[in-house]
Amino acid sequence: MPHVIETATSGRATCRGCGSRIASGILRFGERLPNPYADDGGEMTQWFHLDCGAYRRPEPFLEAVVGAEGPIPDGDRLIQEAQSGITHRRLPRVSAAGRAPTGRATCRACKTLIDKGTWRLALVFYEDGRFAPSGFIHARCSAAYLETTAVMDRIRHFTPGLEDADIEDLRAALTV
Ligand SMILES: [Zn+2]
Ligand SMILES: [Zn+2]
């Protein structure tokens, strides 16, 4: 079956991108994957909020957009974000931002320690239908690692608690 964008008929599905529930009645994105437990070539579906799908699974998301039956609210922005995630192949790894609580993690971009209190971005790697936490980069190493600094929208999406002052600090760190 092709990937799908459809209205959630129950509120039971959990989004693979952010881990929270997908409310009944909103549009959701479903990625079809081979079911490893089926002998007969069966498939399973992993559900995402539309934003989470555009950010985390850009290729199948765009396929689902092409096959969508009706207009998608905010569709142009979502398509643009997904295309950006294909152009910059590491961009879908970006997860929440925060200040390093310790000085023990090493930046995956510059391979130096991330000082306590410094802004960093958490990364997730996607493999075989799963997202695994995969370390951090300095916010200031974003341009080098991600090949773009246009990451603020996805960071805000995956870091709901950011205050205005945090966003300002982070923006400054991203563009050094
Ligand atoms: Zn989500
Ligand atoms: Zn770094």
Low-confidence stretches: none
Widest sheet, order of strands: 1-2-3
Small molecules held by this entry? zinc ion
Architecture of the largest domain, according to CATH?
2-Layer Sandwich
Count of the separate structural domains: 2
Topology, number of strands: 6
For the termini, the CA-CA separation is: 45 Å
Mean pLDDT rating: 95
Shape: globular
What is the name of the CATH class of the largest domain? Alpha Beta
Structural class estimated from helices and strands: alpha+beta
Question: H/E element string?
Answer: EEEHHHEEEHHH
Task: Give the CATH H-level superfamily of the largest domain.
Answer: Zinc finger, PARP-type
Rounded Rg? 17 Å
The CATH topology of the largest domain: first zn-finger domain of poly(adp-ribose) polymerase-1
Quick recap:
This protein has helices at 50-56, 58-67, 75-87, 142-146, 152-158, 164-174; strands at residues 4-7, 27-34, 43-49, 94-99, 119-127, 130-138. By secondary structure, the chain is α+β, with helices and mostly antiparallel strands. It folds into two domains: 4-87, Zinc finger, PARP-type (first zn-finger domain of poly(adp-ribose) polymerase-1), CATH 3.30.1740.10; 91-174, Zinc finger, PARP-type (first zn-finger domain of poly(adp-ribose) polymerase-1, 2-Layer Sandwich), CATH 3.30.1740.10.
